[in-house]
Amino acid sequence: MTPFEAIAEPNRRALLDLLRAGERPAGDLVAATGLSQPGVSKHLKLLREAGLVSMRPDGQRRLYRLEPHNLTPLDDWLQPFRQFWSGRLDALDDHLEKEQ
Q1: Which fold has domain 3-99?
Q2: CA-to-CA dists, residue 85 to 47, 74, 79, 93, angstroms
Q3: How is the chain split into domains, by residue range?
Q4: How many Å separate Cα 99 from the centre of its chain?
Q5: 87: exposed, middle or buried (C-beta count within 10 Å: 0-12, 13-18, 19+)?
Q6: Backbone phi, psi, residue 57, to 5°
Q7: DSSP three-state, residue 85
Q8: Cα distance between residue 3 and residue 14, in whole Å
Q9: What are the angstrom distances between the C-alpha of 74 and each of 8, 27, 30, 35?
Q10: What span, in angstroms and rounded, lies between the C-alpha atoms of 22 and 61?
Q11: pLDDT tens track of the chain, all 100 residues?
């Protein structure tokens, strides 16, 4: 699974968002999302396959963390859109200033 395919699903994006704050056990992710444990496990497996999260065992728990360096292809793809919107917002700002 590619990073693009991984983030296409809203629950996986929610898991990534939760992991931005740092490493978390799977049980915390279940509680935070309201998804079933098997559902969270399925999504985490796909995120691991895409290289967006990693897991480390800690006794009986499994701790998950974000792998931000693997988000680079997504960031690279978004860059032209940021430039597009930045230019549009600058033009809007100029227009609003002239109207005042």
Answers
A1: Arc Repressor Mutant, subunit A (1.10.10)
A2: 29, 17, 10, 12
A3: 3-99
A4: 39
A5: exposed
A6: -75, 145
A7: helix
A8: 14
A9: 12, 28, 26, 26
A10: 16
A11: 888 889 899 999 999 999 999 999 999 999 999 999 999 999 999 999 999 999 999 999 999 999 988 888 888 887 887 777 777 677 777 777 888 8
Amino acid at 84: F
Alpha carbon 34 to its chain's center: 18
Q: Give me the DSSP letters along 7-72.
A: HTSHHHHHHHHHHTT--EEHHHHHHHH---HHHHHHHHHHHHHTTSEEEEEETTEEEEEE-GGGGH
